[in-house]
Amino acid sequence: MMLPQWLLLLFLLFSFLFLLTRGSPAKYNLLGLKEVCIRNQDCQTGCCRRAPDICESHCAEKGSEGSLCQTLAFFGQYRQCPCLQNLTCVYWKSEKWSAIAFGHCQKIGRQKLAEEMFF
Questions:
Q1: Domain ranges within the chain, ordered by starting residue
Q2: pTM score, two decimals?
Q3: 48 Rama class: left (phi>0) / alpha (psi -120 to 50) / beta
Q4: What is the mean pLDDT of residues 87-106?
Q5: Chain-wide mean pLDDT for the chain?
Q6: Per-residue pLDDT for 16 more than 80?
Q7: What SS3 state is found at 36?
Q8: Are 58 and 34 contacting, i.e. CB atoms less than 8 angstroms apart?
Q9: Distance in angstroms (rounded) separating the CA atoms of residues 99 and 108
Q10: CB neighbours (10 Å) of residue 47?
């Protein structure tokens, strides 16, 4: 009995997506800087950055103060890496597209945040 071609293609597509999105094994080695990656979870830094001019993504460092940043990943990758832990991504309201926003990494103290909130 022969399966229809569309059913076979559908099965292959779902199999590929399952393999692409499944959790990483316990002994999985994370990729270093500038190594080719598929998703953020593959990298030690947690940032798989897609180069704008080529169709490859590489592990990159998170943003330092003043560098460009992005708030959310799109299909498991960033166009600009998020900021380091002690920084935040500051963006203009007009720069926000849906839930993804592009801005610059900036250090914001707790005192400044409290002043903006209450005054």
A1: 30-118
A2: 0.58
A3: beta
A4: 75
A5: 77
A6: no
A7: strand
A8: yes
A9: 21
A10: 23
